[in-house]
Write a structure and sequence with these properties.
Chains A, B: This is GntR family transcriptional regulator. The structure is a homodimer. Chain A is α+β, with helices and mostly antiparallel strands. Helix content of chain A is about 30%, strand content about 30%. The structure holds a DNA duplex.
Chain lengths: ~280, ~280
DNA sequence: TAGTGGTCTAGACCACCAC
DNA sequence: TGGTGGTCTAGACCACTAT
């Protein structure tokens, strides 16, 4: 093949402001070139990219090299490929989860779903939950430390998947110490009427403090499947531990699809914020 | 080549609890096999994996297929490869950022660095900051909306990189409206004695409310470089907008390396938490 | 059926690291 | 110097989608 290696297609684009040196690998330069086309709007969100064969001819490289370049952008979450259809630029729709007050709103509560419903309704979306499961699980070291029980002790796990407009949104799993679960009737594979938080409060276990921990990581294969995540989408891991005046009551682990979720805290006096249409 | 395709190496490992079906792609099955070995501790954090050539022989596939499998695990953040050295299982060291009170601690303040120092000292680490930069930047739509200025208006940007024990930790960029910056002396390419927050308060711009937004995404190439992120490491994006009783004062954008950071909020009455050694 | 991306092979040469 | 991962080629066949 008469390749005129590393020339024409890159003219004027390789030595742009932020990045690519002349000596970078071919696939990185192709990735960079496509990234720029997306960033500048030459290829817009939702648009199809050239096919792999077209890119192969356009840049005069092997298909494998084209796929390496597309892989880079896929891992950055910029594009998404589907067999038989093509490769498109991904578009983002962000939903907001108000951590500070999401659970304390006093609505028609039904398990942990009330807050979620209210949030979604406020944002004009249709929230549902699916796949409720109640299980008994042994405490991992992390769970044991946070709930002040011994490692391996039985915990009650109540898990649900949240969907918005038919799309998976987050996976939530709440853990309760066994003694509290028995006292408050959490050992049912159904919704707790009025919600778990009220059931706890009714027996004197009132939640008065929260510790929230937020981290991020790449999803495990089953999480990617359940959340329908495409390559290059991280998850936001949100762990809330709640306390009464005496002890930890509950640990709720939420795995948010990173490309569709934003967690918000509103703290202090936000008069100026609310006045200007901030609080949705 | 006499390949006995898809047999021996997988016996007893392919149809484990959560996952791999017999019909999955070869490279996925190899990835799954290695993932299990890591998960079960057969290969521990810090250990070296077999070389690509060894894996190629072990599974009787082409080297390219081995690399596809390793790519999967790399994108999950489980392993890290270095040219000439090999491939190792990554280990995690998590540091904690206490969002609720990080900025309100009244120590020997020096720009935005006081809170960071205090946090790191509490965790027994050595915090430093590098690469301070003061710039004037036009407001993007996102910045304009949050700071209640017009798009394109000039904003003062004061940026630093945070390092812990010599390792990059997070990138921080604070934006201030131009009128406040002039009034409070923020247009200097140096630290503001006593800290910016005090300088604002001294002129009557006291911060009394915060809105924090947390999202995650894959890093852009320059962020990955500055933070020294390896493949498959997302970033945690933390945006804090602060308010006086009248208006937004400041927007601070922090990009945390996702594999080394945890953001924590402590809310409400946490007597029970503190009593049991919770508050570090 | 034609075209797309998905998987896989069997080589090659290069850059970096430890010895 | 030998071994490692990094890059790249030039094919092949398959699975899925659109028409």
């Amino acid at each position: 093949m008469g390749r005129s290696r590393g020339m024409a297609p890159f003219v004027g684009t390789t030595s742009r402001g932020g990045g690519m040196a002349q000596s970078d690998p071919l696939y990185q330069r192709i990735a960079s070139d496509l990234r720029d086309q997306i960033r500048t709007g030459a290829i817009k969100a939702g648009d199809r990219l050239p096919t792999e064969v077209e890119l192969r001819e356009q840049y005069d490289v092997s298909r494998n090299t084209v796929r390496l370049a597309l892989g880079v952008l896929q891992n950055e979450g910029m594009i998404s490929s589907t067999q038989g259809k093509g490769t498109v630029v991904r578009e983002q729709v962000m939903l907001t989860y108000h951590a500070a007050w999401a659970e304390s709103r006093d609505r028609h509560a039904s398990d942990q779903t009330d807050a979620f419903y209210a949030e979604m309704r406020d944002q004009g979306r249709k929230g549902e939950y699916r796949d409720f499961e109640m299980r008994i699980k042994p405490a991992t070291p992390e769970l044991a430390a946070r709930l002040h029980v011994d490692e391996g002790d039985s915990l009650v796990s109540r898990a649900i998947s949240r969907f918005v407009d038919g799309q998976p949104f987050s996976l939530q799993d709440s853990y309760y110490p066994m003694d509290i679960s028995q006292e408050c009737g959490l050992l049912t594979p159904h919704d707790v009427p009025g919600g778990v938080i009220r059931a706890l409060a009714a027996k004197g276990h009132t939640e008065i403090g929260y510790v929230d921990e937020l981290t991020t990581r790449m999803p495990r294969p089953d999480e990617a499947r359940k959340l329908g995540l495409s390559q290059g989408t991280p998850v936001l891991v949100y762990v809330r531990t709640t306390y009464s005046d005496k002890r930890p009551l509950r640990l709720t682990l939420t795995i948010f699809a990173g490309d569709r979720n934003r967690v918000v805290y509103e703290l202090g006096d936000l008069t100026a914020y609310a006045e200007n249409g901030g609080a949705s």
